[in-house]
Amino acid sequence: MTTHKARILIVDDEPINIRILHKALADDYVILAATSGAEGIAVAERERPSLILLDVVMPEMDGYEVCRRLKANPQTADVPVIFVTAMSNVADEATGLEAGAIDYLTKPISAPIVRLRIRNQLELKHYRDMLVELSFQDGLTGIPNRRRFDTHLATEWKRSARLNGPLSLLLIDIDHFKLYNDHYGHIAGDDCLRRVAQALKASTHRPTDLVARYGGEEFACILPETGADGAEAIAHHMQDAVRTLAIPHARSLVSTQVTISLGLASCVAEGDTGRAEDLIRRADAALYAAKLGGRNRLERE
Are 48 and 66 in contact (CB under 8 A)? Predict the structure, then answer.
């Protein structure tokens, strides 16, 4: 089995310090390096390292300011920062911790101590990430929940606005699900939700695509960098995937098995994330039209 090494970013304006840390850590980690604060921020945004070792005293932008900017940026806010510096008084350490660092190492470094501190912090980050992941997951279906949907849509809205690229949203409803629950019971209903959720999730393939449980029997799918035609193709693929499940639905008014209705809206984002609500409203209106038009169908806004 392949194991992926954690990536450590070293930011220090003195190449000799980078070489010392590289020698101490290269056997266990993938090492990235930057020799200025601005370069360190750019590398952190691009590479998303597992942890950053950051010098405090650097020209133009010191480590405290670098750390503040990293913590203010949603792309890098969750990356742990350890200051590595010759300054060792309590006030300096307090300043570093207030800037957002999680630990403070003084030069000259001890290789065994650096390795232990990094290992401990990466373990803590792993457990924190697991807790965050659980908080973003729907307990019944195992796919992302509404909270995760909201944060992902906000992120992709900003990206669409920045890159001037398309963003599509699908809202999806299981047809006559209340009748399914009444006829087969809630245990069967929960199993139906799980199976449909996994079929919808399997219909997308890119890491930035997100299928989430939106509420009750409703799901949502965020499709970044996807126009209306591309989103329509994915929507039809989802319909086919749900039909392939062949879950019997004796009380459905549109089929003998479970089907879905979908509403599609697309845009190129503009302005702040608050306007993402307009995209949701448009997709919801399209879903309503699909239901009004007989269900088991897709409507484009």
Answer: no
| Token digits of residue 145 | 């929940």
The residue whose two tokens read 């930057």 is 34
Buried residues in 158-174 as b, exposed as e (16+ CB within 10 A): eebbeeeebbbbbbbbb
Q: Which domains does the chain have, with CATH numbers?
A: 7-135 (3.40.50.2300), 146-300 (3.30.70.270)
Count of CB atoms within 10 A of residue 45's CB? 13
Distances, alpha carbon 259 to alpha carbons 4, 188, 193, 233, 247, in Å: 40, 15, 12, 17, 9
For residue 217, indicate whether it is catalytic: yes
* Alpha-carbon gap, residue 290 to 286, rounded angstroms: 6
Q: What is the pLDDT of residues 85-104, one digit of tens each?
A: 877 666 666 777 788 888 88
Q: Which residue has the tokens 């796919």?
A: 143
**Catalytic-labelled residue, pool 156, 217, 218, 301:** 217
DSSP 165-229: -EEEEEEEEETTHHHHHHHH-HHHHHHHHHHHHHHHHHT--STT-EEEEEETTEEEEEEET--HH
- Span 153-191, pLDDT tens digits: 998 998 898 889 999 999 999 999 999 999 999 999 999
Give the global pTM. 0.71
194-243 per-position pLDDT tens digit: 999 999 999 999 989 999 999 999 999 999 999 999 999 999 999 999 99
- The proportion of the chain whose per-residue pLDDT surpasses 70, expressed as a percent, equals 96
* CA pair distance 296, 263, nearest whole angstrom: 11
Q: Phi first, then psi: give them for residue 175, nearest 5 degrees.
A: -65, 130
